[in-house]
Amino acid sequence: MRTLETLSGGEWVTSGDWIDVHDPADVRTPVARVPALTAKDVTRAYDHAERGFALWKRTSPFERARVMSEAARLIRERLDEIAADVTAENGKTLAEARGETGKAADFLDYYAGLARQGYGTLLYDVRPDTRTHTQREPIGVILVISPWNDPLITPARKLAPLLAAGNAAVFKPATETPLSGLRFARALHEAGLPAGVLNVVTGRTAVIEEALLDDPRISGITFTGSNDVGNRIRRRLADRNVRFQGELGGKNASVVLADADLPAAARAVVAASFGQAGQRCTATSRVIVERPVYEEFTRLLVAEVAALTVGPGTDPATTLCPLSSPRHRDGVLADLERAVEQGATVLTGGATDVEGERVHGCYVQPTVLVDVTPEAAIWREEVFGPVLAVRAVDGFGQAVQAVNDSGFGLAAAVFTRSLERAHRFVDEAECGQVAVNTTTTGWDVHLPFGGFRDSGTAYKEQGEEVLRFSTRVKTVAIHFGA
Predict the structure, then answer these.
(1) From CA 350, how far away is CA 366, in angstroms rounded?
(2) Distance between CA 445 and CA 423 in Å, rounded?
(3) In the sheet where 345-348 sits, what is the strand order?
(4) What is the rounded distance in angstroms from the CA atom of residue 192 to the CA atom of residue 327?
(5) Residues 6+ apart with CB under 8 A from 341
(6) What distance separates the 2 farthest-apart alpha carbons in the chain?
C-alpha cells in the first residue's frame, strides 16, 4: 500500500493519523493512504495561502500562464499513471479516467490562455479628457471542496480559473478520492507554482470542518456536492461577506418525441444515464417519452442496457463500473427498494451484482424502471447511480411540464427532428444546460456550466463566466487633460 503526502506551504507533509483509500471494485485491501490532518494543520494551510496570495496576485499573468501550461504538459505526460489512480480510487473505467485526465489538462491550458488576455472593459466618460475602464482583480483565498465522482476534473474545473486570476486556494478533496487531487497539485507544484498558492487538506470532515469553513481569511468557497451539505455551507456563510459557488444536485430529464430517431435517442440516453455508473451530476435519470413511441423506445432502451458489461474499471471490456463505496451502493439499492414499494416496475436490473469476484465490489445492475408516478421519490429525488425511470406523456406540452416539474434545473435534452420543437424546448426548459439530439452530459471546458433553482447558485463554472466568482470589479477613471 502506498503512503502519500499532502501539499502545504510548498512542502509535502504528513501527519500522525492516516486515511485509507479503497478500490470500489474490491474493497478488501486499501490501495493507498493519505494524511488525516488536524484543525491546526488546516489553520496553517490558511496561513500559507494568505502569504501565497500576497505573492501570486502580483505575479505576472504571463508567468501564471506559464506555470499552468507546464502543469498541463506534465499531466498529459503522466496520463496513464494518473488515470490508473483515478480508476483505483473511484472505480470508473480506464477509458473514462483517461478522458478525465486529458480534460483536466485542457482546463489548465484554457485558463492559461485567458490569463494572458486580462479581464476588463473600456468605457467612455461624460467628463471631458477622461477615460474610464474596469479591471478584474482576484478576491483572495478561496476554499475549494470537490466531490468523489470526478476526483480530477472537478478540482481542475475549480482551481484552474481561480489560479489564473491570481487567487490562492485551500483545497479539500473528497475523503474517498484524494489521490487524483494530489496528482493535480503535484503537477502544479512541479511546474513552479509558488509556495502557499495551493494547499491541499486531506482529512476527516468531522475533525476539520470548523477550521475549514470558519477561517476569517476565506474570500470565497466553491463547492460541488449534495444539496444538504451545500445548503449547510450556505447557511454557515449567511452573516459573512464570503462568496459561495455551489454546484449541487440534479434530476435530469431527456425527452423523446414521436418524431425522434429512436435508435439514436436510445443510444444517447443510455450513454448519459449509465456512463460512470450514473455518478455524474448531469446524468439522465428521467426519460419522458411521447406515448405513440413509448413501447418501441422502451424496447430499444432495454436492448441497449442489456449490451452493457458490468465489471472493474481496469477491465477493457467493462462499460459499467462499480459505484464509489459500499455506503453509496447500499443507498442506491435502498432507493430502488423504495421505488418498487411505491409502485414502480423493474424492466431490467434492480439489484446488486455479486457474480464471481464482484461480490467484493460496489456493483449495482443497470436498472430501468417503468410505472413510475410523478409523485414517486425515484422520479423526484437524485439517486446518483445506474437507475433510469421512464414515463409516457401526451404531447410536447406535457413533456416540457414534466421536465420542469422538479426542484432541480441542471440539464435536460430533447430528441426530435422538428426544428420548431427543438427551439421551443430550448426556450421553455428551466435548466442551465439544454441539449438537442445529444446527451445531457459532456459539456466542454469553455462552455459555461451550472444549473437553475436547487441545482446551484448564480455563479456559473467553466468558460469566462466563472471569473465572475473569482474576481472583483474595480472601476477606474483617468483624467488626462490640463
Answers:
(1) 7
(2) 24
(3) 345-348, 367-370, 387-393, 284-290, 252-256, 411-415, 433-436
(4) 39
(5) none
(6) 86
**From 89, 100, 176, 247, the catalytic residue:** 247
Residue with cell 473514462: 96
414, amino acid identity: V
The yes-or-no verdict on residue 455 having pLDDT over 90 is yes
Phi, psi of 208 (to 5 degrees): -115, 0
Cell of 296: 418501441
- How many alpha carbons lie under 13 Å from residue 231 in its C-beta half-sphere? 7
CB 387 within 8 A of CB 365: no
247 is catalytic: yes
The pTM (predicted TM-score) of the whole model is 0.96
Residue keyed to cell 470558519: 214
pLDDT tens digits, one per residue of 189-231: 999 999 999 999 999 999 999 999 999 999 999 999 999 999 9
DSSP 293: G
The residue type of 67 is V
Nearest to 310 by CA among 302, 300, 321, 301: 321
To the nearest 10°, the Cα dihedral for 472, 473, 474, 475? -170
CA distance 156 to 102: 11
The one catalytic residue in 70, 100, 176, 281 is 281
Q: Is 362 a catalytic residue?
A: no
* Residue 391 bridge partners (DSSP): 288
CA 387 – CA 278 distance, rounded (Å): 7
Report pLDDT digits (tens) over 66-94.
999 999 999 999 999 999 999 999 999 99
Q: Name the burial class of residue 280, with classes exposed (0-12), middle (13-18) and buried (19+) by CB atoms within 10 angstroms of its CB.
A: buried
Q: Are strands 452-453 and 408-409 parallel, antiparallel or unpaired?
A: antiparallel
Extract the C-alpha cell encoding 429: 426548459
Question: Of all helices (H) and strands (E), which one includes residue 248?
Answer: none
Cell 493519523 belongs to 17
